[in-house]
Specification:
Oligomer: homodimer
Shape of chain A: elongated
Structural class of chain A: mainly alpha
Largest interface: A-B, 42 and 42 residues
Strand content of chain A: under 5%
Order of helices and strands of chain A: HHHHHHHHHHH
Number of helices of chain A: 11
Number of strands of chain A: 0
CATH class of the domain at 12-25 and 78-215 in chain A: Mainly Alpha
CATH architecture of the domain at 12-25 and 78-215 in chain A: Orthogonal Bundle
Helix content of chain A: 55-70%
Radius of gyration of chain A: 19 Å
Distance between the termini of chain A: 51 Å
DNA sequence: GACATAACCGGACTGTAGTCCAGAACGGTC
DNA sequence: GACCGTTCTGGACTACAGTCCGGTTATGTC
């Protein structure tokens, strides 16, 4: 539970009521600690790439990085934390686009204000692609410890974003609760299983179908279907 | 992976294309094996009730049952398998109602043929209640081993059922893929997290909102909403 | 540059899931 | 009731995640 809070990582924190960027705590990090952090991340990335995320033990990573196990766990908490650190960079990109990038993902558009329905659909699709692209790593970050998915800051970020869009698209509904439902099929565990059984395109299409049914196609909003 | 297939357990198997009841393999079970199975299940149930599912180790169960660890794993495969065996009874009840019980859950109605939309909503609600009632145990059965949820026969049963109803309610869509999406927010891991953060009623209401948006209210089918 | 203090380091240690296999127990046969 | 192939048993064994703490090293101060 005691986590690394010193390093220049974990880019975003979520303000209670709105999405806010916030560089994490003052970059006070001892030089040896910094050296080790880099060594660990490099070693982990290499071992994961070589042997597959599932077959790499924390001992092996510590050994490859030339670092003790204690150091490894002190900095990253657990296996999930290590995965989060490795994903941080790429995740940040997506987060930045969502916060301040061009439509449909972000809020920036030349004409009028962006449509929350389209933004939601675009977000779900983009996020699903992100998870699929780093499936094993994300899966580890979500399942290494029970309940990990819902504890990490990133999930709260995605949840908040989803809830804000839902609140705009479906006023009157319980956006916070609905957002969890929308995010459920985007868990790495779920996508992993579905993709293995069917294939990615069908899974993505089905998710889009469900989201579209929930919020509708676009502003013209003619319900969703008419049987 | 090598599983117990002898005992009178695991009530249903799923035929490739339709829902079929099928008592499992011939009840050929050696008397010592039967004795031990009962002892293990009884010991597990008691320890779980006393100390909480999370805090009971397989060693402890084996010891309490007066049985070796090897026996425990041979019969139940892993922790998830043990949970499945314990849930079997209650799950079977729900399955039976769905297969041959009264509407809205089952297909039996006095008037005309049952409406798949209502049946789907009823099923989702009933299943969610079932999971919530045995949250820790179901959670263990789904998360003890990675991907466990999607391997156990029960999931395939629920998935098949959901897919059949979806195929009737939304012809033209990819029912198999959509069924996975519908089941995603019903995972124990997900419900556990959401219930801890909000509460059960909001979670249930949100799930119902989403399902209703997907299939509509009833046969009268006037789309879902019109902004 | 010596000192004090806080932060960090690493490997021995613990607890648990899951494997393995030599031998015991079963149950059918003559 | 003795024999035999099959199935089951149980505890020693491995591998891994995660904890703990005495010793070490960086950094700010005089």
């Amino acid at each position: 539970m005691s986590f690394d809070t010193t390093g220049p990582r974990s880019g975003y924190a979520i303000h209670e009521t709105s999405l806010v960027t916030l560089r994490s705590s003052p970059p006070k990090e001892r030089s040896d600690a910094a050296r080790n952090r880099v060594a660990v991340l490099a070693a982990a990335a290499e071992l994961f790439a070589r042997d597959g995320v599932e077959h790499v033990s924390m001992d092996a990573i510590a050994a490859a990085a030339g670092v003790g196990k204690g150091t490894l766990f002190r900095r990253f908490g657990d296996k999930a934390g290590l995965a989060v650190a490795l994903l941080d960079e790429r995740e940040r990109e997506l987060q930045e686009t969502i916060l301040s990038g061009p439509a449909p993902l972000g809020p920036v558009t030349s004409t009028d204000k962006p449509d929350p329905r389209e933004r939601l659909r675009a977000f779900v699709d983009a996020y699903a692609h992100y998870v699929l692209a780093h499936l094993d790593l994300v899966r580890m970050s979500e399942t290494a410890a029970p309940g990990a998915r819902y504890r990490i800051g990133a999930y709260r970020f995605w949840h908040r974003h989803t809830a804000l869009l839902l609140a705009a698209a479906r006023p009157g509904d319980d956006a916070d609760a609905l957002a969890h439902v929308v995010l459920a099929p985007l868990s790495a565990e779920h996508l992993h299983a579905v993709v293995a059984e069917q294939d990615a395109d069908r899974a993505l299409a089905a998710i889009d179908t469900a989201v579209t049914a929930l919020v509708g196609e676009d502003v013209g909003g003619k319900g969703t279907r008419g049987s």
